[in-house]
Design goal:
Helices cover 67% and strands 4% of the residues. The protein is elongated. It is built from 17 helices and three strands. A three-stranded antiparallel sheet has the order 1-3-2. A hairpin with a 2-residue loop joins β2 (281-286) and β3 (289-294). Mean pLDDT is 77; it is low at 1-6 and 194-209.
Length: 343
């Protein structure tokens, strides 16, 4: 007999438990071996409880898949650039969805569509659904001046994820980093950058740039140089900067990394996991706190980053003389002190 705590489940709590049991049965035994009885046994309930909610096995499996998908949203990164956000998001989506797509495809092929009246492809699409890129990514890029959302169609904005989705359905495995970079750098960014370029046509004379635009131009030139260097080491801009920071400050906590990179702890956690998988960083528990260290392999990979940073600065400030640079540093220091409360 089921324990009292199990028999008293009801409503959403009961439905969640039933769908979780159905998902676990599907993962462990596959669609063909899953039965209403096996799910009921795992959930420690009766088949009648299942049949009151789902007419048959197919409806139960479809519901379990949708629940599993919806309960695991993909974290939306905030790296400070459209390219960085796209690379981080598509990498997370690829890794998170590859296993799910494989299970969904196997179930569709194994006969999930038999009692639904739909083709295997239609069933697959119902399970997988569409997960367009978070609008937040594009709205932040629009605010930074990287794209103009008023001139970009929904089809263009959905393209990066649709390409990842297509590859996942073909291979049922996470995309390689080089493929994700190709989607972002070779297919998507050139397309939206052309749209931004079109905005400058037809103007009578160049507009005077605002101060914010000047700073964005400086950051863009510096970032571009660092990104070029990072790609030769199969790193993103964000990964290179984090590795360089950890080399200078070994043993910091994750919150310190988040503050340095002006992003959220959740996004930093995703970035560090990717670096850990490559053996470039490691997290150790010391004094009850997790601290982050760059490994020797990580140090080797970012050797020369300081020189690249200096080179990028020199490239930007080359037109200025010594006194002009000192004056600019004083002005920017004044702005920075104001923004940080004098710290």
């Amino acid at each position: 007999m089921a324990p009292e705590t199990v028999r008293r489940r009801q409503g959403e709590q009961l439905e969640s438990a039933l769908l979780a049991a159905a998902w676990d049965e599907l993962v462990e035994g596959g669609y063909a071996r899953l039965t209403m009885e096996s799910v009921a046994v795992r959930a420690r309930t009766s088949e009648a409880v299942l049949y009151r909610r789902w007419a048959n096995k197919d409806e139960l499996v479809l519901a379990a898949m949708r629940r599993h998908r919806d309960d695991r949203p993909i974290a939306v990164p905030d790296t400070g650039s459209l390219r960085g956000d796209l690379l981080a998001y598509l990498t997370s989506a690829s890794e998170a969805l590859a296993g799910f797509f494989a299970i969904a495809a196997a179930a569709a092929i194994s006969g999930l569509s038999a009692s639904t009246g739909a083709s295997p492809g239609q069933v697959r699409d119902r399970i997988i659904g569409d997960r367009p890129l978070s609008r937040d990514i594009y709205e932040r890029a629009h605010a930074r001046g990287e794209i103009d959302l008023t001139r970009l169609s929904g089809a263009v904005l959905e393209m990066p994820f649709q390409l990842v989705r297509h590859d996942l359905l073909l291979t049922l495995a996470p995309l390689r980093p080089a493929r994700i970079r190709s989607i972002v750098d070779e297919l998507f960014l050139p397309l939206v950058q052309l749209e931004v370029k079109d905005l400058t046509q037809g103007r009578s004379g160049p507009p005077r740039p605002a101060s914010g635009d000047l700073f964005r131009s400086i950051r863009w030139v510096q970032r571009k140089r660092i990104e070029e260097w990072s790609r030769t080491r199969d790193l993103t801009f964000e990964q290179a900067m984090v590795l360089g920071y950890l080399e200078r400050r070994p043993g910091v906590i994750q919150r310190d990394v988040a503050e340095m990179s002006y992003t959220t702890p959740a996004n930093v956690s995703l970035l560090l996991k990717g670096l850990e998988r490559r053996g470039l960083v490691e997290r150790r528990t010391e004094g009850g706190r997790k601290r982050v260290y760059v490994t020797p392999a990580g140090i080797d990979l970012v050797t020369g980053l300081d020189a690249v940073l200096a080179e990028a600065d020199e490239m930007v400030f080359a037109p200025l003389g010594r006194d002009e640079r000192a004056g600019l540093e004083a002005l920017v220091g004044k702005i920075n002190a104001h923004l940080t409360g004098g710290s």
